[in-house]
Amino acid sequence: MGRAKKAVLAYSGGVDTSVCIPYLKQEWGVEEVITFAADLGQGDELEPIRQKALDSGASQSIVGDLIEPFITEFAFPAIRANALYEGRYPLSTALARPLIARRLVEIAREVGADAVAHGCTGKGNDQVRFDVAIGALAPDLKVLTPAREWGMSREQTIAYGERCGIPSPVSKKSPYSIDLNLLGRSIEAGPLEDPNVEPPEEIYAMTVSVAAAPDQAQTIEIGFEQGNPVSIDGLRLDPVSMIRQANALAGSHGFGRLDMVENRVVGIKSREIYETPGLLLLIKAHQELESLTLAADVLRTKRQLEQQWADLVYQGLWYGPLKDALDGFMERTQQTVNGTVRLKLHKGNATVVGRSSASHSLYDPDMATYGAEDQFDHKAAEGFIYVWGLPTRLWAANQRRR
C-alpha cells in the first residue's frame, strides 16, 4: 500500500479512533489527518468530540448533521422493504455505514485527500461495510485501517494514546460496546459474550422493562403514503419526528428489544442485543398494510426479496447493482401501500388490531362475507378444485398402481 499524504478519518471520539490520529501520522507517515464525526441523532454532545480530535492531533475536525438523510434515504427504504436481517434485526447500525462512507468520500474530495480511514477492527461487520462502500464510490482513494493492523490490546492502545498526549478514559469503562443512533442501540461484549447470560436491565436506555411498562394499553394509528409512515393518530409528522415519536411510544411500553445470536459477514457468530423500538413498530405496521394492499403473488415475491435486500445491506453491498435493482422492485410495489394501521401497545407487545385503506384495499367484503351479501360463486369452486387437484390425483393413481 502506498503511503497517503492526507486522510479523512471516520471519528467517534472513543479510544480507538482517537489513537488512530497519532498512529496514522507517526507509524504510517500520513502528513495530515482530518476527522469527521457524524451526528445521526444519537444525542451525544458533539462539540467535546470535535475538540478531542483536534487535541489528539487532527488538523481539522468536522462534525456533520446527517440525521435527515439517514432517515429519508436509509431508514424509510428499509421500512418499505420490511428489512429484517435473519428475520429479526432491522439493520439500525448497518444502515448508517453507507451514509457515513458517502460523506467521508465527499469530504475527501472537498479537502483534496488521497485516503479515507476508519477505526474498525478485523472481526466486525462495519469494516466490510466501510471498505466496500468506499471502494464502490471512490475506487481511487486509499482506505487506511490502522485498528485492523496495529495488533494492540485495549490496554496497549490506551497506553499508546497516553504517550501521544491522549488522556485515558476517566471513568471505569463499561464492559459493553455500544453503538447508538436515532434508529436504535446495539449492545455487545462484556458479560453478554456468553449467549446464556441474561442481559441485565441496566444496558437498556430506549425501552422500559415489561415490569415497569404501564398496566394500561395504548392504541395508536399509523398512517402510510406510498409505503412511507407519515402520521401517528392523524397528526402528520416529518420523517425525523416520525422516528422520534415511534421510539418514544414503543419504548415507553417496553416494545423493541432483541436478544439474538447472529451470523456476521466474516463467518463468526455473535451475540447481539438491540433496542430498536420505533423501527420495529413501523416495520410491523407496514407489513400489515401490505397484506391488505398488495396482490398475493406480489406479496409472496416481495417477502423473498426482502430477505435478500436485508442481507445485502447487512453485508455492506448498499451501493451494489443487485441492491439497486431490488430498490426498483420495492419502489414499484409501494405505490399502492396507502392507508392506516391500528396497533395496541401493552407490556412489551405491539398487537395489530385494525388496518384500512380507502384507496387501495384488495379486501372485498362482499366476497369475504358469509352473510346474505355474499357475492362469491360457490358453484364455480367445484370445477376449480377438479382442475387444481388433477396433477395430485394422477400422481396418486400412479403410486397406487406401482
UniProtKB/TrEMBL annotation:
<dbReference type="GO" id="GO:0000053">
    <property type="term" value="P:argininosuccinate metabolic process"/>
</dbReference>
<feature type="binding site">
    <location>
        <begin position="10"/>
        <end position="18"/>
    </location>
    <ligand>
        <name>ATP</name>
    </ligand>
</feature>
<feature type="binding site">
    <location>
        <position position="121"/>
    </location>
    <ligand>
        <name>L-aspartate</name>
    </ligand>
</feature>
<dbReference type="InterPro" id="IPR024074">
    <property type="entry name" value="AS_cat/multimer_dom_body"/>
</dbReference>
<feature type="domain" description="Arginosuccinate synthase-like N-terminal">
    <location>
        <begin position="6"/>
        <end position="167"/>
    </location>
</feature>
<feature type="binding site">
    <location>
        <position position="262"/>
    </location>
    <ligand>
        <name>L-citrulline</name>
    </ligand>
</feature>
<keyword id="KW-0436">Ligase</keyword>
<keyword id="KW-0055">Arginine biosynthesis</keyword>
<dbReference type="InterPro" id="IPR048267">
    <property type="entry name" value="Arginosuc_syn_N"/>
</dbReference>
<feature type="binding site">
    <location>
        <position position="129"/>
    </location>
    <ligand>
        <name>L-citrulline</name>
    </ligand>
</feature>
<dbReference type="GO" id="GO:0004055">
    <property type="term" value="F:argininosuccinate synthase activity"/>
</dbReference>
<feature type="binding site">
    <location>
        <position position="177"/>
    </location>
    <ligand>
        <name>L-citrulline</name>
    </ligand>
</feature>
<dbReference type="InterPro" id="IPR018223">
    <property type="entry name" value="Arginosuc_synth_CS"/>
</dbReference>
<feature type="binding site">
    <location>
        <position position="119"/>
    </location>
    <ligand>
        <name>ATP</name>
    </ligand>
</feature>
<dbReference type="InterPro" id="IPR001518">
    <property type="entry name" value="Arginosuc_synth"/>
</dbReference>
<dbReference type="Pfam" id="PF20979">
    <property type="entry name" value="Arginosuc_syn_C"/>
</dbReference>
<dbReference type="Pfam" id="PF00764">
    <property type="entry name" value="Arginosuc_synth"/>
</dbReference>
<comment type="subunit">
    <text>Homotetramer.</text>
</comment>
<feature type="binding site">
    <location>
        <position position="38"/>
    </location>
    <ligand>
        <name>ATP</name>
    </ligand>
</feature>
<dbReference type="InterPro" id="IPR023434">
    <property type="entry name" value="Arginosuc_synth_type_1_subfam"/>
</dbReference>
<dbReference type="InterPro" id="IPR014729">
    <property type="entry name" value="Rossmann-like_a/b/a_fold"/>
</dbReference>
<dbReference type="InterPro" id="IPR048268">
    <property type="entry name" value="Arginosuc_syn_C"/>
</dbReference>
<feature type="binding site">
    <location>
        <position position="89"/>
    </location>
    <ligand>
        <name>L-citrulline</name>
    </ligand>
</feature>
<dbReference type="GO" id="GO:0005524">
    <property type="term" value="F:ATP binding"/>
</dbReference>
<feature type="binding site">
    <location>
        <position position="125"/>
    </location>
    <ligand>
        <name>L-aspartate</name>
    </ligand>
</feature>
<feature type="binding site">
    <location>
        <position position="126"/>
    </location>
    <ligand>
        <name>L-aspartate</name>
    </ligand>
</feature>
<keyword id="KW-0547">Nucleotide-binding</keyword>
<feature type="binding site">
    <location>
        <position position="125"/>
    </location>
    <ligand>
        <name>L-citrulline</name>
    </ligand>
</feature>
<dbReference type="GO" id="GO:0005737">
    <property type="term" value="C:cytoplasm"/>
</dbReference>
<dbReference type="GO" id="GO:0006526">
    <property type="term" value="P:L-arginine biosynthetic process"/>
</dbReference>
<keyword id="KW-0028">Amino-acid biosynthesis</keyword>
<dbReference type="GO" id="GO:0000050">
    <property type="term" value="P:urea cycle"/>
</dbReference>
<feature type="binding site">
    <location>
        <position position="186"/>
    </location>
    <ligand>
        <name>L-citrulline</name>
    </ligand>
</feature>
<comment type="pathway">
    <text>Amino-acid biosynthesis; L-arginine biosynthesis; L-arginine from L-ornithine and carbamoyl phosphate: step 2/3.</text>
</comment>
<comment type="similarity">
    <text>Belongs to the argininosuccinate synthase family. Type 1 subfamily.</text>
</comment>
<keyword id="KW-0963">Cytoplasm</keyword>
<feature type="binding site">
    <location>
        <position position="274"/>
    </location>
    <ligand>
        <name>L-citrulline</name>
    </ligand>
</feature>
<feature type="domain" description="Arginosuccinate synthase C-terminal">
    <location>
        <begin position="176"/>
        <end position="394"/>
    </location>
</feature>
<keyword id="KW-0067">ATP-binding</keyword>
<protein>
    <recommendedName>
        <fullName>Argininosuccinate synthase</fullName>
        <ecNumber>6.3.4.5</ecNumber>
    </recommendedName>
</protein>
